[in-house]
Amino acid sequence: MAIQPTIPADRQVIQGYGPGRFRVNGVEYHGSIIITPAATVSWPATEAVLDEAQVADILAAAGGAQVLLLGAGPRIVFVPPARRQRLRDAGLVLDVMDTGAACRTYNVLMAEGRLVAAALVALP
Asked: Could you tell me which of 41, 35, 26 has the C-alpha nearest to residue 105?
């Protein structure tokens, strides 16, 4: 009996992360990333400030997601209500957590078939 969910081969799966890097479907990414079940892109963020440029990057990459996980680095950050509202207006519910928790949560939600995206700030 299989106890792990079957994940379609075309889905982006986070296989590992560490200081300054992520491994997704066997590809090593250096620095921060934005990931959805369909694609992974490098993201120039070095901290989770969610300024206009970061929000624009997320919205451009999120592609139909309904949930956005923000992996804020080693600890959770406060996201101003105006930024949360901008994401909500675009159809994204924001959940902020440390990067490790966001990686694990992304994989679970993606495996469940949820419309999820994650903006992950690389760990120092």
From this structure: 35
- All domains of the chain in start order, with CATH: 14-120 (3.40.1230.10)
Overall size of the chain counted in residues? 124
Helix/strand/coil (H/E/C) assignment for every residue in the chain: CCCCCCCCCCCCCEEEEEECEEEECCEEEECEEEECCCCEEEECCCCCCCCHHHHHHHHHHHCCCCEEEEECCCCCCCCCHHHHHHHHHCCCEEEEECHHHHHHHHHHHHHCCCCEEEEECCEC
Are 110 and 59 a contacting pair, CB within 8 Å?
no
- Dump pLDDT digits (tens) for 39-78: 999 999 999 999 999 999 999 999 899 999 999 999 999 9
Query: What dihedral angle (degrees, nearest 10) is formed by the CA atoms of 65, 66, 72, 77?
Result: 150
Closest to 109 in 3D by CA, of 55, 71, 68, 59: 68
pTM over 0.90: yes
